[in-house]
7-cyano-7-deazaguanine synthase
Amino acid sequence: MSTRQAVVLLSGGLDSMVCAALAREEGFSVLALTIDYNQRHRVELEAAKRIATDLADRHIILPLDLTAFGGSALTSDIDVPKDGVGADGDGGIPVTYVPARNTVFLSLALAWAEAAGAHDLFVGVNALDYSGYPDCRPAFIEAFEELANKATRDGVEGRGFTVHAPLQNMTKADIAREAARLGLDAGISHSCYDPAPDGAACGYCDACRLRAKGFEEAGLVDPTRYVAR
Amino acid sequence: MSTRQAVVLLSGGLDSMVCAALAREEGFSVLALTIDYNQRHRVELEAAKRIATDLADRHIILPLDLTAFGGSALTSDIDVPKDGVGADGDGGIPVTYVPARNTVFLSLALAWAEAAGAHDLFVGVNALDYSGYPDCRPAFIEAFEELANKATRDGVEGRGFTVHAPLQNMTKADIAREAARLGLDAGISHSCYDPAPDGAACGYCDACRLRAKGFEEAGLVDPTRYVAR
């Protein structure tokens, strides 16, 4: 096992799967962190387990009940929009935004990294073809890295942290192509916000639409299992 | 109830109690957030409940098992030092430091605040007479506020967050005096890192020493119940 470790946030979606594989390709051993935040799309956690089996040296699934706070279609009984990307509002940030989610998740990744002696965090956010969440933007990632180096013993003592967002400037098509290049079975990942009880993807939420568009534009077969109609 | 709400991190210690009372004094209704991180000093949670009954409009105790990561005397089986403040190492950051704890806690406070429509966070950190934790320093608080305004829908849409650290420049004696001025019963708060099973304070850990020094320097009776010797 490599002595260079990185904590990778692994949701179970295609983006975080590619992100974990890129961390491995860079020579890191992967400490995969999945947050069980009582998301509606629980099947995501099963996908995270499958991906971690292939790509991670350790995997922690940490329960953290964000439904205690409410405020998002992904953690409460607000309906997940199905009418097209950006169709649920004023062209701003969608109702599937979970308040401060990536801040919370990166903070937990930072906590594990410092405890484990790792100094690299990977997160699969991307700012192109994305859903408009503020905590996927480059300015957020930069601000978090700055914070990390003021917030921690290692940071203030000069053993700084780097936050890697290797998908930052990729389109969904680029990500689908990366998955193919890395030899990943994209079919074991899960992106849908509102899957059927058996895990099949709805095909209509933003996450499904963006994912399908990625495979299509990349000229690749979409391995996603959709709800039969 | 006031319409101005603030999320206050409430550990159950004297500092966070005074912090919550100061938020109320400023006219905020208090959303008190306590993180049950599987800390050794579980009696702290009982103290948080007592304080919230007096000072908070809502109280959430959120389970988050930071022992999954390890790395601190407060969450693992490393011994809590008892030989005097700063005596456990090289004069640097003590073993009771929990990796990235305040980053994680403030992130959760931010998540609740945004979900509740609040724009003010209160945290009882202080940088004088403190234990040397990096995430109690003013530079950390400023960096977190910057991050909060890039991380959230409200932040990027111009409804910014303010992180209040009203104890930042107070000594422990100042804090003991504030508790008296605010009419608080400091005896219901709990600071000790390594209490007896009945909740009595050990008297020797850093938290006990700093707290006792505060009451002594303020010329106030120390209401803490110590282990009988």
Remarks:
- The helical segments of chain A are 14-25, 43-55, 101-116, 138-151, 153-156, 172-181, 206-218.
- The mean pLDDT of chain A is 89.
- Chain A touches chain B through 47 residues (CB under 8 Å).
- Chain A has one domain: 5-218.
